[in-house]
From TrEMBL:
Gene3D superfamilies: Periplasmic binding protein-like II, Winged helix-like DNA-binding domain superfamily/Winged helix DNA-binding domain. The keyword Transcription regulation applies. It comes from Nocardia halotolerans. PROSITE patterns: HTH_LYSR (PS50931). This is LysR family transcriptional regulator.
Length: 314
């Protein structure tokens, strides 16, 4: 049976001092207790480690060998303890995140970057996914976490509000409405309105189209052939508007701008985690909560909402 590590660490101090009085003072225990520890250690090993006399301590051949071999062994053991503690705290392992493309301009990169920088032991991988697939994929464990726009339905998950943002429209800088700091919903409805493909995100599609439900005449909606055109070609006609959250400002293509819609309810972005959460999931929650607070993603919400206000799915 291997000796206890405390006695082994005491022995190494004694091997350096070669004096029980000085070693006991350095360790912070009584000299008789140190002597008893050393006798027990020798008994466990079945060999003498020390030659004692009234004035000094001399290491035996076995004691010299132990003094040379123990430090790297203890260092390796310390690393093993640290590894176990880090894993138990969710700071070690592989983290798989799925995010909807609409969160990829700002929110997802900010959270992924913070996770990487705050937990060097984590290997973080993030991939874009179709929004309706994220919650089921989190629930069945194929990914560890999801970032979605809108409160997506799904069983076996818990959703945490990560960000709330104003709704506005993307439009060409030379559009007639671009000169207004805010745009009336009724005024926006007089122009062609581009909405994302409903299959890509039914929740947000329906929320955006509902903004114009009461406008007359009925607005002219259309869905682009390419759902995520980075150059926003269809807006360059100077007529078409694209309802979008304010995060769109961070990835504006040249010649375009964004204006808020007056009186429009906000869009939300949620962190999706499995209902049963491991230390890794709790680590993600903690980091995401801190980030949301620091970046004022939820300016009117206390940080405690992550515990009290989370909503389970299904």
């Amino acid at each position: 049976m291997a000796p206890d590590t405390v006695s082994l660490r005491y022995f190494l101090v004694l091997a350096q001092e070669l004096n029980f009085t000085r070693a006991a003072a350095r360790i912070g225990i009584a000299q008789p207790a140190l002597s008893a520890r050393m006798r027990r250690l020798e008994s466990e090993l079945g060999t003498s480690l020390l030659v004692r006399n009234t004035r000094s301590v001399v290491l035996t051949t076995a004691g010299t060998a132990l003094a040379e071999s123990a430090p790297p062994a203890l260092a390796a053991l310390d690393r093993a303890w640290d590894t176990a503690r880090n894993a138990g705290a969710g700071e070690l392992g592989t983290l798989r995140i799925g995010y909807s493309l609409s969160t990829g301009a700002e929110t997802a990169p900010a959270l992924v970057d913070r996770l990487i920088r705050s937990s060097p032991g984590l290997v973080v991988g993030a991939v874009p996914m179709a929004t309706p697939e994220i919650s089921p994929t989190v629930a069945d464990g194929r990914i560890d976490a999801g970032i979605t726009r809108g409160e997506q339905p799904g069983r076996g998950v818990r959703r945490f509000l990560l960000r709330r943002m104003r709704v506005g429209v993307l439009l060409a800088q030379h559009h007639p409405l671009a000169e207004h700091p805010e745009i009336e919903i009724a005024d926006a409805a007089t122009y062609p309105l581009r909405l994302p493909d409903r299959a890509a995100n039914p929740v947000v599609h329906d929320q955006l189209s509902a903004l114009f439900h009461d406008t007359r005449p009925s607005p002219r909606f259309h869905t682009p052939a390419v759902s995520f055109d980075m150059f926003q070609r269809d807006l360059r006609d100077g007529l078409t508007l694209a309802p979008a959250g304010e995060a769109a400002v961070t990835a504006l293509a040249a010649g375009l701008t964004w204006r808020p819609l007056q009186g429009a309810p906000g869009l939300t972005i949620h962190l999706v985690l499995p209902r049963e959460q491991s230390p890794l999931h709790r680590r993600i929650r903690t980091i995401a909560k801190t980030l949301a607070h620091e970046l004022h993603w939820l300016p009117d919400q206390a940080p405690e909402h992550w515990t009290a206000g989370s909503r389970p799915g299904g």
